[in-house]
Design goal:
The chain is built from one helix and nine strands. The protein has 144 residues and is mainly β. It has a single domain, classed as 2-Layer Sandwich (60s Ribosomal Protein L30, Chain: A). Strands 1, 2, 3, 4, 5, 6 and 7 form a seven-stranded antiparallel sheet that branches. It is globular, with a radius of gyration of 15 Å. The N and C termini lie close together (12 Å). The mean pLDDT is 96. The structure holds zinc ion. The site of zinc ion (ZN) has 3 residues, from strand 5.
């Protein structure tokens, strides 16, 4: 099943000083959003993102310790270990407009963030560890 129907959209801002990934995770778990799409913009005071090294199958983290613009926050909500799980990537802009980004990790602290979370109805997308990539990927949902 690859067809999903939009059920509702939650729109709001996340608190100054909060941890972005933890705040999103708490929100989707509290609202029991099991299949969703996350969009957002805002700014961070400290950011921690990762790049997945395909050769060693490990995430390498990077930190940005001064204020950055969140130019784009985009990701999804699916199920891992029986619970709603947030997977988000983020694009960050520095004072010169240079862009950096990666896979969002805990430790990213917000200055401000406006988010839209779309909840969908349809078959749950359940994450399991994939041997080939080393990643926790959806076990269903292949489009070919
Ligand atoms: Zn990722």
């Amino acid at each position: 099943m690859i067809n999903y129907k939009l059920k509702r959209t939650i729109i709001g801002q996340l608190p100054n000083g909060s941890d972005l990934l933890e705040e999103l995770t708490q929100l989707v778990q509290k609202e029991n959003i099991r299949c969703g799409r996350i969009h957002g913009i805002g700014a961070t005071t400290h950011a921690v993102v990762a790049y997945y090294d395909q050769n060693i199958k490990k995430y390498n983290s990077m930190e940005f310790t001064s204020g950055m613009e969140i130019l784009n926050l985009h990701g999804n909500v699916s199920i891992r270990d029986g619970k709603p799980f947030v997977h988000v990537h983020i694009l960050l802009g520095d004072p010169q407009g240079k862009v950096f980004g990666g896979h969002l990790l805990s430790g990213t602290k917000l200055w401000a963030c406006e988010v839209f979370i779309d909840e969908f109805e349809g078959e749950e997308l359940v994450r399991e560890q994939d041997e080939k990539t080393g990643l926790f990927l959806w076990k269903t949902g292949y489009l070919s």
